[in-house]
């Protein structure tokens, strides 16, 4: 579901006048940067972009998003322009509840982003491992098995009655 949502939101942004106004950035670079931005918002924060507040945007730009770019990645230079255009697009199509906070958090967040990408100190994003369900090591006692307490009775007639 999140992949489809990211794809649709990316396509809506790329078709917007705000994305068309980005000169000097190829369409492929616009798509890549906006997809990475939206993936970080949806997957790492679990929020809709219109629900972001200033603190979340600073965290996104300072810690999460730099991990999606290699150190000194040339695409990272396009993040400020694409982010500004995306936020303008978001204000056009949705009610942004924390618009003022977002506008105040953009500059400090972008400075932190640039520093993290330039230094290469940002944690690299690794693929998440699928969690396996917990499996008990011991075999389950059957109803007709001898009770593990050692009484010699069947489990269902001894301790099995209690559960």
UniProtKB/TrEMBL annotation:
Matching InterPro entries, A to Z?
A: SEC_C_motif (IPR004027)
Composition-biased stretches (Basic residues): 153-163
Which SUPFAM superfamilies did the record assign?
A: Sec-C motif
| Entry superkingdom | Bacteria
List all Basic and acidic residues biased stretches.
Answer: 127-138
Q: Which Gene3D superfamilies match?
A: 3.10.450.50
Q: Where is this region: Disordered?
A: 121-163
Query: What's this protein's name?
Result: Preprotein translocase subunit SecA
């Amino acid at each position: 579901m999140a992949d489809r949502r990211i794809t649709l939101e990316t396509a809506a942004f790329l078709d917007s006048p705000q994305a068309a106004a980005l000169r000097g950035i190829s369409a492929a670079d616009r798509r890549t940067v906006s997809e990475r931005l939206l993936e970080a918002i949806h997957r790492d924060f679990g929020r809709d972009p219109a629900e972001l507040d200033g603190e979340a945007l600073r965290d996104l730009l300072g810690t999460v998003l730099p991990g999606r770019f290699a150190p000194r990645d040339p695409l990272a230079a396009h993040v400020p322009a694409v982010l500004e255009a995306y936020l303008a697009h978001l204000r056009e199509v949705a009610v942004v509840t924390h618009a003022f906070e977002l506008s105040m958090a953009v500059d400090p967040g972008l400075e932190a982003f640039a520093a993290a990408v330039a230094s290469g100190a940002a944690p690299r994003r690794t693929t998440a491992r699928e969690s396996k369900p917990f499996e008990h090591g011991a075999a389950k006692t059957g109803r007709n098995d001898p009770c593990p307490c050692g009484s010699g009775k069947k489990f269902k007639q001894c301790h099995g009655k209690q559960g």
